[in-house]
Design brief:
CATH superfamily of the domain at 503-694: MITD, C-terminal phospholipase D-like domain
Distance between the termini: 77 Å
Largest sheet: 12 strands, mixed
Number of helices: 14
Radius of gyration: 29 Å
CATH class of the domain at 503-694: Alpha Beta
CATH topology of the domain at 503-694: Endonuclease, Chain A
Mean pLDDT: 87
Helix content: 10-25%
Shape: flat
Structural class: alpha+beta
Strand content: 15-25%
Low-confidence stretches: 16-29
């Protein structure tokens, strides 16, 4: 730099010091990256957080790497600069850890060949393991760092001098963070790391038998995508992370990601035409073609095929010959198998993500209209995570003909909260709710009506039709499209009938009736229900014998406090209480922060706080954690005078607090005590509602 060589001797510090035994948890709260060894998912969390279950597969088998994301690097104040660049030290080049962070895998035309997924919120983690692969030891008082030589050896920072005139011990020479003075001031075996969120595309080929082959395929599809886009290949990175194989064998994916933080959209284009990209990648690895090296038996990749400036270090980790053989073999299997030709011989494989494909087809002609077929029990529809919802809302706002076709009898028979949610969402999105015709095929996902007729999209997989984050994206069957006969006009449903309640069912609008101190929140809810219904007044005139509460969104301390208040109001000492929630958060990272309404990064702590808080109210409590839970928040109750179910629109999530601090890293007992303190809650501006159905 500036014509001279400077050698970094450590990092600049940007957290509190000094470190001592009482503050060891805070000092250890650097970060850790967890790499699930079962499915390849990446989870970033503070290093003090205990590993929980993987949100994608439920496994607890993690490879954990503690790391420091340095704010900067510092040169020793006593270092003598020079201009000899011949000895600038060594470093170990390693590939980053990469994950698309989505469960939405899509099958290739033949599901036995492989699958792919793409995510705009993918995670890429670069790290420096040190010259010996064991990380660094870092003084948390002055920032001095030294490479670790052994996995379990002694450190080398004993008696070290401050990096840049930092804190000094009594001898005025030794840093106060020296291990012999302060044993908690030196963090051992830290990697230096950096993580970004960006666009990531992963292609998993089940016959890929080695990491070298997967890495070569990644380089080839990156080069093919770059040539299509007219950009430099090094605008995108590459990796070959491990992945789950359906048969339990070892497998790897070919991953390509945008180097720009936040994404640039380059790697996402691979998912729009994976078949074409794979064929072009195969041709790039063919050394017999004009302009290549001419050696068909060449093992390693070279600059004449797929290597670029940023991938020269990976040459010995490639296997060009095996990768070319793999892509050549699967090229013969990329035709759509007969069993998936749901529209006859003219059936086509849908290569693009389904929401994107439907949006593009609507944009082709202003007269095109769209109908989406809703399958499964309406109570299980997850409109918040449904990737098709933003597409419908966007085109509905433009006044285009957009419909959702539902099973009218199933929607009418579901609970009032679900009916109301569907209707209000459809009205907001300007989407018509129509009844499915008898001729509508159960395999259909969506259809676009144009001047040329009806083009329908379908899948033979039942899970592809589940309305949620995985809609239209499954590994066991491809999504296909084809022309089909136009059906008779579908009958529009009477939304006013769907919004009404009758018989043993009642809907309650809630504005500010429950606002006020958190203490007594549940009592105010119970009083509101009794005041608005004579039947409920009779049922709730005695404490509940049994309560079952299901809520997949119990992730923050505020929701736990409000749930505790509700349980306390509806039960007594002998009530049996069962609570069901998710063991791990899916569909995105936790919204963490030092506030009462922010999520726990560690759901093990969440569960312990919830159990202890509830046990102090009702001794007979059972908290169960599951990998998947019903979307609808519901409280089932049984009293001596009746039983039924309360269906919540947003569960405990409709109420807010203002600037209430909470230490998510403190001990369990401290957090339980903190939750008991007085504070007030306010409902959201739009209010909420719930429905009660008596048995």
């Amino acid at each position: 730099m500036d014509g001279v060589v400077r050698e970094s001797a450590g990092v600049t510090l940007n957290w509190k010091r000094p470190a001592d035994k009482a503050g060891v948890r805070e000092v250890q709260s650097l970060r850790q990256m967890r790499h699930c060894q079962s499915c390849g998912a990446l989870l970033s969390a503070p290093s003090a957080v205990s590993p929980g279950a993987c949100p994608d597969c439920g496994s607890s088998d993690f490879k954990i790497m503690r790391f420091l994301a340095p704010a900067g690097f510092a040169v020793d104040a006593r270092y003598e600069v020079h201009d000899d660049p011949s000895d600038t030290g060594t470093s170990m080049l390693v590939d980053p850890w990469v994950s698309a962070r989505t469960l939405a895998w899509r099958a290739l035309p033949d599901p036995n060949v492989g699958r792919l997924r793409t995510g705009s919120d993918g995670l890429v983690f670069w790290f420096n393991p040190g010259p010996h692969g064991h990380g660094f030891e870092v003084c948390l008082h002055c920032g001095r760092a030294e490479a670790e030589h052994q996995a379990d050896g002694t450190g080398s920072l004993a008696g070290h001098r401050p990096l840049r005139g930092g804190p000094r011990a009594a001898d005025e020479r030794t840093c106060t963070g020296a291990p012999e003075i302060n044993p908690y001031a030196v963090a051992r075996h830290l990697r230096l790391g950096h993580e970004i969120r960006t666009d990531v595309c992963e292609i998993q080929l089940y016959d890929c038998a080695s990491r070298e082959v997967a890495l070569t395929v990644a380089l080839a599809i990156r080069e093919a995508a770059a040539r299509r886009l007219g950009v430099d290949a090094d605008e995108m990175g590459f990796a070959a992370p491990p992945a789950i194989h359906p048969a339990g064998q070892r497998n790897w994916t070919a991953a390509v990601f945008d180097r720009a933080s936040g994404g640039a959209g380059f790697s996402a284009t691979i998912a729009r035409d994976p078949i074409g990209i794979l064929n072009e990648a195969r041709d790039l690895l063919d050394c017999s073609k004009l302009g290549r090296c001419g050696d068909p038996d060449a093992v390693f990749a070279c600059p004449r095929c797929v290597l670029s400036v940023d991938s020269q270090h990976a040459v010995e980790g490639t296997d060009r010959r095996a990768a070319h053989s793999l892509l050549t073999a699967i090229g013969r299997s990329l035709d759509l198998p007969k069993r998936f030709r749901l529209f006859g011989p003219a059936t086509e494989y849908e290569s693009a993500p389904l929401p994107q494909a439907l949006s593009d087809r609507l944009g082709d002609d202003a007269s095109n209209t769209l109908v989406v077929f809703m399958s499964g029990p309406p109570a299980e529809w997850e409109l918040e995570t449904w990737q098709m919802a933003p597409v419908l809302e966007r085109w509905g706002a433009r006044g285009r003909g957009v419909q959702i076709a539902v099973d009218a009898s199933a929607l009418t028979a579901t609970d009032a909260v679900t009916r109301r949610n569907v209707v209000l969402w459809a009205q907001r999105a300007r989407v018509d709710i129509v009844a499915r015709n008898e001729v509508d095929n159960d395999a259909w996902l969506a259809g676009v009506v144009s001047t040329r007729g009806l083009t329908a999209w379908a899948s033979s997989s039942a899970s592809a039709k589940a309305v949620g984050i995985g809609w239209g994206s499954v590994s066991d069957a491809p999504v296909v499209r084809g022309a089909t006969a136009l059906a008779a006009p579908r009958e529009r449903l009477d939304v006013s009938a769907l919004l009404s309640a009758g018989g043993s069912e009642a809907i309650f609008e809630i504005a500010d009736e429950l606002d006020g101190p958190a203490a007594g929140f549940g009592a105010r809810l119970r009083a509101l229900l009794r005041a608005r219904s004579t039947e409920l007044a009779q049922v709730f005139s005695a404490p509940c014998l049994e309560i079952r509460y299901s809520d997949k969104y119990l992730f923050n301390p505020l929701s736990i406090r409000l749930l505790t208040e509700v349980v306390a109001a509806f039960s007594d000492y002998d009530t049996n209480v069962k609570v069901q929630t998710l063991a791990a958060k899916t569909g995105g990272g936790a919204r963490t922060g030092p506030w009462l309404h922010r999520d726990w990064a560690d759901l093990v702590t969440r569960t312990a706080v919830m159990e202890q808080s509830l046990v102090e109210v009702v001794p007979k409590v059972q908290v169960s954690q599951v990998q998947s839970a019903p979307h609808r928040r519901r409280l089932e109750f049984r009293t001596p005078r009746g039983s039924g179910t309360i269906f919540f629109d947003q569960g405990m999530g409709s109420w807010r607090v203002t600037d209430e601090h909470h230490d998510h890293a403190s001990s369990i007992s401290e957090q339980v005590t903190s939750l008991k303190r007085p504070f007030s809650v306010l409902n959201g501006l739009d209010g909420t509602f719930l429905a009660v159905r008596l048995d």
